[in-house]
Amino acid sequence: MSHPKARAVAAPSRSPDAIADLVVDAILAGRIEAGQRLGEQSLADLFGVSRTLVREALGRLSARGMVVVNARRGWFVVQPSAAEAKDAFDARIAIETGLVHALPQRLPDPALKRLKQHLAQEKAAIRGGDPGERSYLLGEFHVCLAECAGHGLLADILKDLTARTTLIASLYQSTHDAARSCADHARIVAALAAGEHERAAALMREHIEEVARHLGQPLRDDPVSHLRLALLPAAARDGGRGPPPAERARAAPVPHAAPRAAPRAAASRRLFTDLLTPPPPNPQPKAAARRRKQEP
């Protein structure tokens, strides 16, 4: 199973479907975030294709529920609501526990070998510290399971669902540990290898429910949080001391206008000073009087 970045470099096809799949791979890897704008021209330049092809790819992603379009602003990756997040995890539980129950009592050796190889890749990615590869492989495990069972359609559905829950995990600040996910996957594979499908299905349900339980509040629940953080005084940006930036941003009070009061007060003082100060004497009073007399 290749890394998504390698796929992007080596992908021979630049069809709308191939471009859409690469975008979903990047979402699975956590390299494209919820709410991120996907510029048509930027994608066209990146893939070396026309904007028409890119628009077709984005249309496919929209049909798959991965992006939304705003007529004036462009295409954006979806930002699932809390209710949509619950729906996504509920759908995964229903599909994946059903998938496990439908597996043959004894998985073919090639399928077990592939699942174990995938687990080894997960562990290597966790040790290696590449968050993108780690995120991609942890999500791809569920797709791999469907593929090993010979369910291509379910694999496609699960790819989109796991990409959506990856967006949800980043948007809602999941605290679920990657090593814990990998250990859960290993227990599921061990149960399948032993022919204990009921136990494997129960472990799958527990795993997905555990991931859902670790969701927190939306990272962007406050629309001006990033602006607040940008406007914090330099002394507040202490290089890592104190709460994390996202927490500081939410906790920071709205910047007020006190620093601007001094210039406004100075301007007001100048205005009133000008009004109260008598005008300077006219250096040529007689000439001005003569001009007034000459006016009709």
Helix/strand layout:
Elements: H1 4-10, H2 16-28, E1 37-38, H3 40-47, H4 51-63, E2 67-70, E3 74-77, H5 82-102, H6 109-128, H7 131-148, H8 152-171, H9 178-193, H10 197-213, H11 225-231, H12 245-251, H13 258-276, H14 285-294
Antiparallel strand pairs: 1-3, 2-3
Helix pairs in contact: 2-4, 2-7, 2-8, 3-4, 5-8, 5-10, 6-7, 6-9, 7-8, 7-9, 9-10, 11-12
Task: Provide key terms for this protein.
Four Helix Bundle (Hemerythrin (Met), subunit A), disordered N terminus, mainly alpha, Arc Repressor Mutant, subunit A, 296 residues
Describe the overall structure.
The chain is mainly α and 296 residues long. Among the domains are: 4-77, Winged helix-like DNA-binding domain superfamily/Winged helix DNA-binding domain (Arc Repressor Mutant, subunit A); 82-213, Four Helix Bundle (Hemerythrin (Met), subunit A) (Up-down Bundle). Helices cover 66% and strands 3% of the residues. The chain has 14 helices and three strands. It has a three-stranded antiparallel sheet. Strand 2 and strand 3 (74-77) form a beta hairpin. Helix 6 packs antiparallel against helix 9 (178-193). Residues 1-12, 221-227 and 234-280 have low confidence and may be disordered.
